[in-house]
Amino acid sequence: MRTIEFNEDVSIAQIIAALRTIPEKDIKIVVPKNSIFFTNSVNQEILKKLSADLGKSILFSQSSNLGFVEGTDVMEAAAQTESIQPKPQKIPSKPIKNFLRAANFVKMLPKKILIRYLLLVAVLLLLFLGYYFIPSVTLNLKVESRIQEDEATFSASPRIREVDFEQGIIPLESIDTLKEGSLKTQTSGKKIIGDSAKGNALIRNYSTAVEKIFSAGTKLKVSSGKSEGLEFSLTKTTTVPVGSASATIDAGGRKVSVVDPGRAETELVATKVGAEGNIDANSRFSVGSESLDTIDAINTTSFEGGTSKEIKVVSEDDQKNLLATLSAQLYEEGEEDLRSETSREKKMPQDGFKNSIVKKSYDKSIDSEAEEITLNLSIKTQGVVYSEKNLFELMKKYLEPFIPEGFLISEESKVEAEVIKRNEDNTITFVGKIQGVLLPKIDVDNLKKTLRGKSLSFAHNYLGSIQSIKSFDIKPFPVVPAPLARIPFRTSKINIEIKTQ
Amino acid sequence: MVFPFKSIFPGTETPKNFLVIDLGLEKVTASIFELVDGAPPKMLGVGRKERSKKLQDSLEGVLDALSTTSDSIPKKVILGLSGGMMKIVTTIVRYKREEAGEEITDKEISGVLERIDQENQPLKLFFASIISANVDGHKVLNPIGLKGAFVELNFFSSFKDQEEIEFLDNTLANLNFEIFKILPSAFATTKILLTKGIRDFLMLRLAAATTEITWVKNGGILDIINFSLGKENQDWQVGLEVVIAKYYKEHALPDFFWIFGEDGGLEKIKESITNFPWSKFNLDKNPKIEVPNFSGDFSTNNLVLLALSYEGGYDANN
Description:
The complex is a heterodimer. Chain A contains ten helices and 27 strands. By secondary structure, chain A is of the alpha+beta class. Chain A is elongated. In chain B, the strands form three sheets. Chain B has a five-stranded mixed β-sheet with strand order 3-2-1-4-9, with helices on both faces. In chain B, strands 12-11-10-13-14 form a five-stranded mixed β-sheet, with helices on both faces. Chain B has helices at 55-67, 106-119, 162-174, 185-194, 236-247, 267-274, 303-310; strands at residues 17-23, 27-34, 42-50, 76-81, 87-96, 123-135, 138-140, 150-161, 178-184, 201-206, 211-217, 220-227, 256-261, 288-290. Chain B folds into three domains: 6-84 and 163-184, ATPase, nucleotide binding domain (Nucleotidyltransferase, domain 5, 2-Layer Sandwich), CATH 3.30.420; 87-159, 2-Layer Sandwich (Dna Ligase, domain 1); 197-290, Nucleotidyltransferase, domain 5, CATH 3.30.420. Chain A binds chain B through residues 11-13, 16, 36-37, 39-40, 42-43, 45-46, 49-50, 146-151, 153, 401-402, 404-405, and chain B through 27, 46-50, 65, 68, 84-85, 209, 225-229, 233, 235, 238-239, 241-243, 246, 263-265, 297, 299, 301.
């Protein structure tokens, strides 16, 4: 049975990793009594299930000594690797102890040898300078990012130039564009036009007591026949005198009364255009609201001049449809224009447009005869833009209290704004959203100082020991044999690129 | 400290401004809330910090963050607890009252609770809530002030190690705070999720390396279970399986999961739950998984704070 001891801070994930790594089937797990492992039975059940799935048998035991655990277990070794940060190695220095003695030695040398020595020194010096100044290295570090999302309500105002972090306001810039266009369409309205039939008629008054006056416009209707109900009107005011009565005695001795109606000639015109009004002579009419027994009219000649035809005219819907279609098209063009003005730096909030009609003219009015109608329209589209950098800075400030220790907000974070209210003072209220990409904090300057002049193997070990770095790649320039390869001495030659995994 | 159990009765006097602290699975979050007549509590600022072994350090960090958003921090605290060892007990108490003509009092209920407390020693009762009550066959919300002979009380009660409760009390007292109410965060969160109309569900609260599962059956909490694997562990699913295996034979597995995290990043978990072989737990289709979404100022990240703030006297069913 293999025994593995863990310290109090061990995580379940670490124990699982050990179970997977160790080849033995029977494993005894020793953990201090006060670890989460023993205070929560579900954790033990999880381990039992996982080990059963792995075909292993485990036994739990509480360690007697608290604190650091000694041994040669692989997990412990791993834990040690994680916890111990490599210390910078000191490069042993070899100072010249007696400079004067060296100078005397130089004086004693023959000239030729001295020249050779000097040349050698010069070459070595050049090599050293080259070795010091030329090499560079690029360290590509991959770290694991975390995503943290949040949102909050802020304002944007055209009256400020810089972000007001206290009040949560970012500067706002207005942009606008004018779009003009015209659109033609076939008219859809229909209308009947033509002339009304007219002619003379005789109005007859059968009353012997009351004279009748009919004003112009009084309506008369055909009282019978195929044109019954057809309506006409008086073209002028007409006065019809009273009728006269006479009586005679017939052969049987009876008295017969005869009324001769009063008559007035006048002119009638059909109330509607069309040939229907061309009625035959001797048609009888009722006059206004009068009874046919007391008043009637008759046309002495047939009526003429009634004609009609159907024409196309501009309808109200024609104008409305034109306006709807063209304005939608110009709104879209205007908004597209403004969108094209945005950039990585200048962003437009969602729902950030306001459109208004500047000029609108139709070439035909409603009801006028036309086959086509054209609309000329000018639209002003206004938009507001904000600096994404400003929004990022504001959201970053807002999110900062919530980010875990040891992390910082990356520039890769995404921010956006959604307008929720346009205020009368030209400010807007918006919901700022951030999808914060959190990167582990890596002190780049300190890292450069630690690594400069060190061997590549040291750099490998050191970078590998930093938990927040998931993988890395060291690219030295120029490539030299391994024993000579070092991280440059000058930190300016060490380029560190941090990317998310 | 003896907790007065006053929190179980509706209508308890509530301060106008109070602090809500959620001791989450891996984070400590605090927020100041303002209570204005009948309206939902208004959040005035939030502070969030990693939960470290030194709780006082975490709390101080959170309060520092809060102090940037508010001039003053209220002293009355609603404290929500998550993770760690917590025992959940649902107890039905039935008894006959000798003095049926006299009103049921606060003291009488406290006496019942003390008995429940004693039965669970050495753990300490820190929160209790009457889920349902019945007096002489009449279902009532609050039995206090009613008269009757036969009383049935259904309590949800939560226990923790006494030392832990005292430690929490002392830590907050050191920071000059007074605990106005202490309860499992999951209890408050469940209450607010029940307003969505689903009465059987699993509520999964996920942190990086810790998960808390609240099993809700017919509107009541069956258990609150946590384990030390979270959304950043590949074996996370095993924990869920162990928890479900513990109950599903006696209680039908709900087909609805609410999930939320302490800092987002739930897509992998949703995928993991979706791909789980649910048929082995007698579910013939995948459970529906939803991230709770509430309108207003509250993002899902602040769900627990919102839920805890409602414990300050606002009725979410309004």
